[in-house]
Amino acid sequence: MSADTVIANLRALGARTSDAHGAQRLAWSSVWRGARRWLDDLLAEEGLRAESDIAGNNWITVPGARPDTLIIGGHLDSVPNGGWLDGTLGVLAGIEALRRFKGTTPPVTLAVVDFADEEGARFSRSLLGSSAASGSLVPDSVRGLVDRQGVRLAEALAENGVDLDRMPEARRALDHRHPRAYLELHIEQGPVLETMGRSTGAVIGTYGVERHLLRFTGQAAHSGSTPIAMRRDAFLAAAETALACREIARRREMVCTVGTVSVEPGIVTAIPGVCEIALDQRALEPDTLSQALADAHEGAARACAANGVTVTWRRLWRIDPCRFDPRLVDLCADAVRETTGHAPRLPSGPLHDAVEMARVMPAVMMFASSTNGLSHCKEEDTPDVDLRVTIDAFLRLVDKTVAAVAADS
Ligand SMILES: [Zn+2]
Q1: 1 or 393, higher pLDDT
Q2: For position 124, what pLDDT does the model report?
Q3: Which helix (H) or strand (E) holds 60?
Q4: Nearest 5°: CA angle at 95, between 405 and 347?
Q5: How far is the C-alpha of 184 from the C-alpha of 90, rounded, in Å?
Q6: Cα(186) to centroid(ligand 1), Å
Q7: CA of residue 191 to ligand 1 center, whole Å
Q8: Residue 118 Cα to ligand 1 middle (Å)
Q9: Which of 158, 307, 347, 372 is the most exposed place for a label (fewest CB within 10 A)?
Q10: pLDDT, mean over the chain
Q11: Region 235-258: what's the mean pLDDT?
Q12: Would you list the DSSP string of 88-109?
């Protein structure tokens, strides 16, 4: 019954905030603010209310017999042309969890948080609100960010009543909540559960990421007059590096992607003298990630030697792998098994707000399967039958975690 309510609410929100191309709840935009107003109305019907923290995260709290707090997270913001489940599933399943305690005093306090700007789709900085809450956000590191229209992050924040320099104060506010455990329900955004024939699974952690820009420099020359043996083709060195990185990923059972490539001068009658690629490597074990990076350096050096090219590396971004709390992972797997008869455990390739919360308190995530593994697009979906059991399993996990936090406190 309650899972159906969550699904109906998800559809209503999706219908209200999507166009023919998908969901348009871009953080700090009017559609996103509209999504939050819609949630306010839904909360009012249940006698609940959202409060913003200084970083623009919205909190809905049900006080319990003790101040120790179980936090359930998600995000209403989406990428442009996004789906109806990414982020929203966590928020609306969380609201349902609160609703089930209506008229009672739970043994511990429960809070749902709708994090601001999880996606980073506009300013290329993901997990903005949750990193403020965890205390890891350094305002100076994002101060220079501008969107495609040339609007500065600080201006977009100010339009929404958020002062960039005060965002780190959100950490102290979080500490005042006595945070004891964090749960997040999310769609998988990949094909693993669907391929296994499973509706839902426990997430053991998220991949760490090493992201670099590689600039290969050779010599531009005429494509007609330069013999193959005499070329210093920067693109070919980059291409061989990309292939080497795929082999590294296969060998080390991780993933890597070259997602951008640009060549100069970029005309069909000239050998590329310069080529830039962006390399993204991800692994669940810190050692695997650092060894894969060392291997990639070696692979690039070999490709350069073979092509008479040089390369420079610039780190764009990195984050350590995050292992979720073993005890909560076990509780999550128990809830999944008791609901579905199976308990798959899997890592997450994408990052989530749970990674930031795991810096502050024990955290775990549960995944719902994704149809065809698709997400960040309007085709994003999970069959209703799978959503229903996933939400049931999540509500079961909430009950188990309430009991665990109460027993500890
Ligand atoms: Zn998400």
Answers
A1: 393
A2: 84
A3: strand 58-62
A4: 65
A5: 6
A6: 7
A7: 16
A8: 7
A9: 372
A10: 96
A11: 97
A12: HHHHHHHHHHHHTTTTS--SSE
Q: What's the gap in Å between 75 CA and the centre of ligand 1?
A: 7
DSSP code of residue 146: B
CA of 175 to the centre of ligand 1 (A): 24
Average pLDDT over residues 63-83: 97
Which runs of consecutive H residues, i.e. helices, occur in 112-220?
128-134, 139-142, 153-159, 170-176, 192-196
Quote the pLDDT of residue 133.
98
pLDDT tens digit string along 91-130?
999 999 999 998 899 999 999 999 999 999 999 889 999 9
> C-alpha distances in angstroms, 171 versus 68, 136, 161, 391?
16, 9, 18, 29
Distance 337 CA to ligand 1 centre (A): 24
CA–CA dist 389, 400 (Å, integer): 16
Q: How far is the CA of 273 from the centre of ligand 1 (A)?
A: 39
Residue 22 Cα, ligand 1 centroid: separation in angstroms? 15
In the chain, the amino acid numbered 257 is: T
- 88 Cα–ligand 1 center, Å: 8
pLDDT of 1 > 60? The answer is no
Judged by DSSP in three states, 239 sits in helix
Cβ atoms 350, 333 nearer than 8 A: no
| pLDDT tens, position by position, 287-319 | 999 999 999 999 999 999 999 999 999 998 898
Q: Rounded to whole angstroms, what are the CA distances from 294 to 84, 277, 309?
A: 39, 17, 19
Q: Is the distance from CB of 218 to CB of 272 less than 8 angstroms?
A: yes
| Ligand 1 centroid, distance to 27 Cα (angstroms) | 12
| Cα 187 to ligand 1 centre (Å) | 8
